[in-house]
C-alpha cells in the first residue's frame, strides 16, 4: 500500500500532525485535502464518542486535533468537509 492510500485510511499512521500533510511535497493538493478530510472525520468521531460517554482522549486533545486539522485545511485554501468550524 502506498503512502497516500495508507494516510487516507489512517492519517496518524503516516503523519504526527496535520501540517505535515500540508508540507508533504510528494502529494498533490487534492490528495492532501482528502487526507485532511479523513483526519477531520476521525477527530469529529472522537468528539461524538465523548458526547456518548466513551472518552478516549481528553477534551482538550480532541479539540486541539480538530483545530489543527482545520488550520491545515485553511493553509491549503480548503474548507472543512462538514462545513463546521471550531
**Helix content range:** 55-70%
Q: What is the C-alpha radius of gyration, as a whole number of Å?
A: 13 Å
Derived structural class: mainly alpha
* Terminal CA distance: 33 Å
Mean pLDDT: 85
Characterize the largest beta sheet: strand count, sense, and whether it forms a barrel. none
What sort of overall outline do the alpha carbons produce when their principal axes are compared?
globular
Oligomer: single chain
What topology does this entry show?
Layout: H1 3-9, H2 18-22, H3 29-51, H4 59-75
Task: State the main characteristics.
single chain; 86 residues; mainly alpha; 4 helices; 0% strand
Describe the structure.
The chain is 60% helix and 0% strand. It is globular and about 40 Å long. The chain has one domain (3-75). With 86 residues, the protein is mainly alpha-helical. It contains four helices and no strands. Helix 1 packs parallel to helix 3 and helix 3 packs antiparallel against helix 4 (59-75). The mean pLDDT is 85.
Amino acid at each position: 500500500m502506498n503512502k497516500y492510500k495508507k494516510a487516507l485510511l489512517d492519517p496518524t499512521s503516516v503523519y504526527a500532525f496535520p501540517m505535515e500533510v500540508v508540507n508533504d511535497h510528494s502529494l498533490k493538493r487534492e490528495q492532501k485535502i482528502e487526507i485532511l478530510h479523513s483526519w477531520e472525520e476521525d477527530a469529529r468521531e472522537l468528539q461524538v464518542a465523548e458526547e456518548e460517554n466513551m472518552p478516549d482522549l481528553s477534551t482538550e486533545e480532541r479539540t486541539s486535533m480538530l483545530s489543527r486539522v482545520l488550520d491545515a485545511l485553511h493553509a491549503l485554501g480548503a474548507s472543512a468537509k462538514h462545513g463546521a468550524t471550531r
